[in-house]
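User: Can you write out an input/output pair for a complex, sequences first and structure second?

Assistant: Here is one pair. Inputs:
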Amino acid sequence: MTILNRAQEARKASLILAAVSSDLKNKALEAMAAALEDSKAEIIQANREDYRRSEKADLPGPLLKRLIFEDEKISQVIEGIRSLVSMKDPVGETQMARELSPGLDLYRISCPIGVVGIIFESRPDALVQISSLCLKSGNALLLKGGSEAAETNRVLSRIIHDSTVKAGLPSGWIQLVETRSDVNDMFRLNEYIDLLIPRGSNSFVKYIMENSSIPVLGHSDGICHIYIHDDADLQIINPIVLDSKTQYVAACNSVETLLVHKKIASSVLPGLQKVLEEKSVELVGCDRCREIIDVAPASEEDWSTEYVDYKLSIKIVDSLDDAVQHINSFGSGHTDAILTASKECSSAFMARVDASSVFWNCSTRFSDGFRYGFGAEIGVSTSKIHARGPVGMEGLMIYKYKLLGSGQTVASFSTGENEYTHKPLEENLQSDK
Amino acid sequence: MTILNRAQEARKASLILAAVSSDLKNKALEAMAAALEDSKAEIIQANREDYRRSEKADLPGPLLKRLIFEDEKISQVIEGIRSLVSMKDPVGETQMARELSPGLDLYRISCPIGVVGIIFESRPDALVQISSLCLKSGNALLLKGGSEAAETNRVLSRIIHDSTVKAGLPSGWIQLVETRSDVNDMFRLNEYIDLLIPRGSNSFVKYIMENSSIPVLGHSDGICHIYIHDDADLQIINPIVLDSKTQYVAACNSVETLLVHKKIASSVLPGLQKVLEEKSVELVGCDRCREIIDVAPASEEDWSTEYVDYKLSIKIVDSLDDAVQHINSFGSGHTDAILTASKECSSAFMARVDASSVFWNCSTRFSDGFRYGFGAEIGVSTSKIHARGPVGMEGLMIYKYKLLGSGQTVASFSTGENEYTHKPLEENLQSDK
């Protein structure tokens, strides 16, 4: 099957999936969980094959580690699927109900987006997690996993497809895309694919954003800042900066640049240097910073670099205004924090920094779907439309308008025979209505 | 100034505009209205110049007519601006409030998208309407109007810019783009422009969707359907079809294809033919339709043609399923209606037809922001993300997450020292917070 055929089949399945009952979707999720449970041995065997091949191909250690999908991880994703069963169906919610005129009622009802294209790197658990979220939200999907996990992905997608179709879902609702050329062709199928969600390296996401006319939900950079205002509570500075930088350096929400108000710089930088260097964090600083602590000079490039490593750039600023300006110039709109004792200053900072998450007196590492309490996270988005920040299942949803009439014509409103009332309606639209 | 400089200036202004108070925005709207009032003579003079030039250049009649912007129309847009003043500020609304842990509170707050690029054809009233909506919602904008209205647009954008900046808005928040090459360059400025809203011909919108990596809010086609089920109330058929087709044929929400259940075809088609032909509607039909009424044959192409004219294609279908399938294959996801006495059938139709608006027993012409009670309409979107259907001011909005802490680190949650509570919070985040 060509990628065009696959996309067409996914689109066809999506139209059925959009109207499937909550019960059937939950039944399919249960079937998926049971089938994965039953096929553990097969999955592990495929995964070990991938591992051996990747090891031979000298895949870097961290990627090799993320590739492993054995007993405990499989049990975790199965648990994740089962927890989705008990969640409320996001399809069919009444978001607005309005009487346009007596007997002419307008409802805005949540519905799935349609067909989602998901491209992710090595982690096979992502495949299961994403498939189950798409299923629960009624979206069909085209999946492209990393080639290092080819065998595992093939086995997983077959098990997921077959078990759920047997449970009653439309055939072809989940499709595995395997070749790089198919992925490139996929970017042009905007007639069939409604949204792309890339989960991978920054350069990879950037490439997709620039090469597809299909909307993309994702983030290419996570250049996060902490600004320490002159009245910041000294007790919280070190723990928060340390946590933001070192709690998990590879995360997109870890801090890359520290901005320090000139008035407080000499009292906080020496202590910060000590605790950060104890954790092997390499520091680079602006000229004024280097007058206070002995660190390497920061280049202009440092301000727009996402280290994803034990490295932090430090700049001294004259004011909150300067900090905001620096962040809006060099930041990536991901997560930026202010440390200050003043509610007014925090409020100004949070209103004026253009980022999906703006924090006051806490670690940038909180910027995450699980910590925000979204249950599942589709990804983090730095886009300015649809969904921004950590995105839960609502990122896979859109709505449609349903207008229920009794013979009304627009002409009868032009002539004055009928009049618009535009009154809110109390009742929700029942899904059987 | 190059288009890049203009976009950068708009971006800079947007960062200030996003945090401007409701009072200042309303003051600026009042100033805009007053300045337009005071400059009526100048506007009319510029508009007459455009009209004379366009008339000489043989601009088609309907476009010439849309170009006219004189006393009454100017008064109407001024009234529109003033009605915006009394509307609630869409910026700063609390959409979600959740305690992540005691003393660590998460808020989701509405905010402007940022910089919007708007490209529209001849109607100068659109310029004023769009500028005032962007102002109220805190968005900066780059505007490109039709060249036929060049003089009018130049005068209007100058008056709007100068009066609002004098009232306190950041300079450069609204910028006029004048040349075609600047518009093409604009499509590549995704670093500075967050959303494109084209209002114009289908081919024009399609061109933009295919040639820009900036998200587009709009619709390229309006191929709307009415499906007459076998149990439809005979009384409502003719009025609804007539209204949907002829109440305003140039509208994107007028019907282009009629689908009729085979069981009811012979009893409804002759009457429909009579009333439609009385209104000079040209009919084309499938073979089975032509066995009942004497109309020209419909070609395969007819099913995917938006006539925007006194023409209607008719197809006989075997079932509701067939009707749904036809619509999902040939429709444009704009507006599709079913006429049926059965709640169950209407419910199945509305769940399964993939369109932004799905109607039961009423005219497709109701698909419109004003009729839906949205006050102002930014446009109609057939996109599957962000905003769909008639889009009011909420289409210009996104949100940011604000997290208010008191020294929390993520590490303290990993160690079990702190725990996530994820409790809903009662209070809204005050805008001064």
